[in-house]
Design brief:
The structure is a single chain. With about 200 residues, the chain is an alpha+beta fold. Helices cover about 45% and strands about 15% of the residues. The protein is built from seven helices and nine strands. The strands form three sheets. The protein has a four-stranded mixed beta sheet, sandwiched between helices. A three-stranded antiparallel beta sheet has the order 4-3-5. β1 and β2 form a beta hairpin. α4 runs parallel beside α5. The two termini are about 15 Å apart.
C-alpha cells in the first residue's frame, strides 16, 4: 500500500514497510519482532524488545512480505518461515483486544450510553454529541436499520460488531444490543481501531 505522507503529518519516528517500501509514521504501521526461537510475532503495542520490521496496515502488504520472504531478510535470516494465516489471526485478535480495552475505559469514564432506547434517545437529540454507535451483530434487522438511519442523519459512525452477550460483558451488564460513545479522544482512538478491524475482516 503506497500512501503519500504530507510533510506536516510526519511527526515522530518514520519507518518503511518491508513489502511496498512506503514510509509512514511508526505508530501507523504494524511492528514485528522475532522471539528467541526465530518465530515472527506481531508487536501491536510496539513495546517488545529487539529489532523490528514493519508493514502497512494492509493484508496485501502482509501477504507480499510473507511471499517475498521480507521478514527473513529484515531479521538477517534468523526468522523462521512465516504462516500468513496465523500472523493475520494474531493481529486481528490484538486489534479486537484493543477495542475491548478502549470500550472498557470509555465505560469507566462515563462516556458511554447503552441500550437501544437510550441510544435512540441520544441520536434524536438536537446537537447530538455522539461519535460512534456500536450495534450488536445479533440485533434484529429492524432495530439495526433504525439505529443506522438515525446515526446517518446525525453523521455518527454506526458499526456492527460483537454479539449482545459480548457487549454486555464489556459493560459489566447483561446482554446489550447497542451502545454509543461520546465525542472525544477515546472515541477517536476507538474509531481508528474499529477501522483497522473492519479492514482486516473486509480484505480477508
Amino acid at each position: 500500500m503506497t500512501t503519500a505522507i504530507m510533510a506536516d503529518e510526519k511527526k515522530g519516528p518514520q519507518r518503511s514497510c518491508v513489502a511496498c517500501r512506503s514510509i509512514n509514521n511508526k505508530d501507523q504501521l504494524i511492528r514485528y519482532v522475532i522471539d528467541p526461537g526465530g518465530r515472527v510475532l506481531v508487536d501491536y503495542r510496539q513495546k517488545l524488545p529487539g529489532r523490528g520490521a514493519y508493514t502497512c496496515f494492509s493484508l496485501q502488504c502482509i501477504a507480499a512480505a510473507v511471499k517475498r520472504k521480507a521478514f527473513q531478510r529484515s531479521f538477517s535470516g534468523l526468522a523462521h518461515p512465516v504462516d500468513e494465516s496465523s500472523l493475520v489471526l494474531d493481529l486481528r485478535g490484538m486489534v479486537e483486544q484493543k477495542i475491548v480495552s478502549l470500550l472498557g475505559m470509555a465505560r469507566k469514564s462515563g462516556q458511554t450510553v447503552s441500550g437501544t432506547n437510550m441510544v435512540t434517545d441520544q441520536l434524536r437529540k438536537k446537537g447530538c454529541a455522539l461519535a460512534l454507535v456500536l450495534v450488536a451483530k445479533d440485533i434484529s434487522s429492524a432495530i439495526g436499520t433504525k439505529l443506522e438511519n438515525l446515526a446517518q442523519r446525525q453523521n455518527v459512525e454506526c458499526i456492527h460488531m460483537f454479539d449482545k452477550e459480548k457487549i454486555g460483558q464489556i459493560l459489566g451488564k447483561e446482554e446489550i444490543s447497542a451502545l454509543a460513545l461520546a465525542s472525544g479522544a477515546l472515541a477517536e482512538a476507538l474509531l481508528t481501531e474499529l477501522s483497522r478491524y473492519r479492514q482486516l475482516v473486509r480484505e480477508n
